[in-house]
Amino acid sequence: MAQGLPGVSAEPDAAGTDAAAGTDTEAGAGTGAYAARVQGLTRRFGDRAVLDGADLTIARGEFVALLGRSGSGKSTLLRALAGLDGGTEGGLDVPATVAVAFQEPRLVPWKRVWANVVLGLDTADPRGAADKALAEVGLAERGGAWPLTLSGGEAQRASLARALVRDPGLLLLDEPFSALDALTRITMHRLVLDLWERHRPGVLLVTHDVDEALLLADRVLVLDGGRIAHESRVGTPRPRHRDHPDLTALRATLLARLGVAPEGTA
Questions:
Q1: Distance from first CA to last CA of the chain, Å, rounded?
Q2: Which of 28, 7, 172, 38 minimizes the C-alpha distance to 96?
Q3: How many whole angstroms separate alpha carbon 63 and alpha carbon 41?
Q4: Most buried by CB count within 10 Å: which residue of 90, 105, 138, 188?
Q5: Which pLDDT tens digit goes with each residue over 156-195?
Q6: Alpha carbons 30 and 15: distance in angstroms, whole number
Q7: pTM higher than 0.90, yes or no?
Q8: How many secondary structure helices (H) and strands (E) does the chain include?
Q9: Close Cβ partners of 219 (under 8 Å, ≥ 6 residues apart)
Q10: Where would I find the H helices in 19-175?
Q11: Vertex 66: Cα angle to 62 and 176 (nearest 5)
């Protein structure tokens, strides 16, 4: 089984963190019925097991959201799938190409937007590939701009373009909307769904927002005690509305699993 750890193509940015980019793995799960499979995954930090035998399968083309309390290991699991954490134990099988978009867009400030999009990408026509990806996310006119001139929403669009230009079999989204204002967030939700329906990668969205998970995902998982402790399938047709009765019931179930009391209770 492929571990998906060697061959990370993310380059350090100016702050020394991993740039949001593609990850090439030794082998791929893309030939099977799933986009990613995790079996008995464990990650320890000192004496604490943040992941403790976690199991997870994401079907090809499936949109999965992952919820959990702060410190539950959501981002740890995502980084393991991205090949950015070599300290895990257990089975980890991912496609040949994995792309990540983080909460912070992590654009390199001294490169133009188009150059950020194709950072680390091996292609004969980098500008053409960048322009095509930027057009898909509504930034066709901003390829020559400097990253610091972009709004928060534009920067996150550029981050998505950088992820999707690699045509990933697995797209990992680590709370990419949490720093955006409410209106921009709605726009980004619609954009992500449109891009997902167009490209059909397997998607894992890590989020703290239960409503966001219910509006976007086919399946919502809760990580607790180092394992997937709950799963809710979301069958409501898209586009979804927050006040749909099925989503209201699922919201109550998920909040209870997260230890959040219903509204109106002490």
A1: 49
A2: 28
A3: 21
A4: 105
A5: 999 999 999 999 999 999 999 998 999 999 999 999 999 9
A6: 33
A7: no
A8: 7, 10
A9: 62, 63, 64, 65, 231, 232, 233, 234
A10: 74-82, 113-117, 126-136, 152-164
A11: 90
